[in-house]
User: Which sequence fits this backbone?
């Protein structure tokens, strides 16, 4: 088994055995990683990779938004997060359209703050 295949098996097992909280943390980490990779691709002027990584980050933020539970007592929190995810999606879209590194950094910083909050729960 090659390293790449072993890493994929490990990641798959990590996801399948994760708690809901751990899944959210993994999604935040994935979005942050992809934005950072887009920033690095931007530095190398590899527009195709910038696009690929920002689309992956957008997909992850969309998944986070779609997974919100708008029912029950935490309705206000879900609404606040939904608004924040909408903002992040717009920032990532604008960053991709304009290849705007500042918007990438801004979105990554917000996701880092959310990650820290989830990790401390």
Assistant:
């Amino acid at each position: 088994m090659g390293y790449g295949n072993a890493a994929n098996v490990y990641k798959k097992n990590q996801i399948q055995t994760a708690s809901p909280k751990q899944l959210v943390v993994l999604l935040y980490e994935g979005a942050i990683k992809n934005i950072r990779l887009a920033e690095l691709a931007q530095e190398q002027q590899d527009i195709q990779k910038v696009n690929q990584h920002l689309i992956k980050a957008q997909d992850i933020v969309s998944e986070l938004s779609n997974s919100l539970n708008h029912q029950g007592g935490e309705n206000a929190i879900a609404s606040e997060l939904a608004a924040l995810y909408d903002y992040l999606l717009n920032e990532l879209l604008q960053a991709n359209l304009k290849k705007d590194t500042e918007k990438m950094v801004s979105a990554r910083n917000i996701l880092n703050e959310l990650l820290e909050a989830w990790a401390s729960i």
